[in-house]
Amino acid sequence: MVRVMAVGVFDLLHAGHLHYVEQARSFGDELVVVVAHDDTVRKQKHEPITTHDLRRRMVAGLKPVDEAIVGNPPSVPIFDILEVVKPDVVALGYDQKHSIDAIREGMESRGHGHIKVVRVEGLSDDLDGTRKIISRILDLWPGTQGGPYEED
Q1: Which of 51, 89, 132, 152 ranks highest by number of CB atoms within 10 Å?
Q2: Cβ(32)–Cβ(86) below 8 Å
Q3: Half-sphere exposure of 66 (CA within 13 A, CB side)
């Protein structure tokens, strides 16, 4: 039994997320997805649109996902989640900025050198990311950022 771990924010669940978990699942028999804690999202990216509890529920409902858990807050060392999930493979998204080499080194220094790190392929759709989707909505929404505007 090969356990794969995927990690992400999963804010405004979309086709790019589904593609990521499908690809991650293909590396093993079981997929555990770690959904970023709200405080981690705030610290590293932006104010989350939906809470980590709701994002975890949404991800758990995806067919390729066997289990979805909320990750640790930023006060907990990032590699501590490996003790909880105990993965054989860590699958990174195509657009995640993590360096595979840095992750491997971090895992090796903490006794997890046996865990394989892979990066999944991206989706060919141009709306494969939350920020891209929000930008497109704003472009199309009446009265915003160049979108069509109809006066009353």
Answers
A1: 89
A2: no
A3: 16
Contact 34, 59 (CB under 8 A): no
SS (H, E, C) the chain: CCEEEEEECCCCCCHHHHHHHHHHHCCCCEEEEEECCHHHHHHHCCCCCCCHHHHHHHHHCCCCCCEEEECCCCCCCHHHHHHHHCCCEEEECCCCCCCHHHHHHHHHHCCCCCCEEEECCCCCCCCCCHHHHHHHHHHHCCCCCCCCCCCC
Mean pLDDT of the chain: 88
Name the phi and psi angles at 69, rounded to 5: -130, 160
Q: What is the pLDDT of residue 87?
A: 98
At residue 117, does pLDDT exceed 80?
A: yes
Average pLDDT over residues 73-96: 93
* Structure-model confidence comparison of residues 115 and 135, the more confident one: 115
